[in-house]
Amino acid sequence: MQIYRLPALSDNYIFLLHDPKRQVAAVVDPAEAEPVLIMLQNLGATLTAIFNTHHHGDHVGGNRTLLQHFPQTVVYGGAVDQGRIPGQQVFLQGGDRLSFADRHATVLFVPGHTRAHIAYYFESSASDEPGELFCGDTLFAGGCGRLFEGTPGQMVQSLSQVRSLPDNTRIWCAHEYTLNNLRFAHSIEPDNEALTQRLATVQQQRQQQEPTVPSWLGIEKRTNPFLRWDISSIQTAMQTADPVQSFTRLRGKKDQW
Q1: Do residues 4 and 47 touch, judged by C-beta distance below 8 A?
Q2: Does the global pTM surpass 0.85?
Q3: Cα separation of 46 and 22, whole Å?
Q4: Looking at 18, 19, 29, 54, which residue is catalytic?
């Protein structure tokens, strides 16, 4: 399974999954159709699936146009999002399984950013192959999504699911927010050496207009405060040992950042 990262809108990423053996493709969260159509033409591939993580317009905005070009395409999304994702035909729940390009994926139900958010985790099929997590706006490189419809407790449970995946999982998040996220993270954990080094690297990447996505879960566990709400340094900064309260205060500070 080949993965192509397609920039869209001002800071979105669309991910196109290509099966070169069958010359078919799937797309994750098509914010708009044009970049997808151009890549499909370049690859000579047919679109067969749209994997949506949630209903927001900058994740489903291309659905209808893509369906006009490829009417046999199957649109996947969360069961709780029924009626909110254009063209949705498959209604997924946590634990559901699906396949693409000989890779098997598990659906994670990860509410918080929205009440219906899901993620797609494609497991590694070989020892030297990473897992691939398409997590929409649940986890970002260095951050996490705002809580528009869910609760802090839900988001903690959702991020706990993500945190339990193998460290060699690539994080395909949907926005280029990394630099700002890490600047905030460093204000919370200024003594985190791994975070300091990562911030310097990302600053250089962005100066050269290089993308910072995908990230790796192992790196996120060491440097992303939103996967570290129960670490002593974060709880000390948030002045609470309660995990959900620690996360709540952390998210509140980021909202004001």
Answers
A1: no
A2: yes
A3: 9
A4: 54
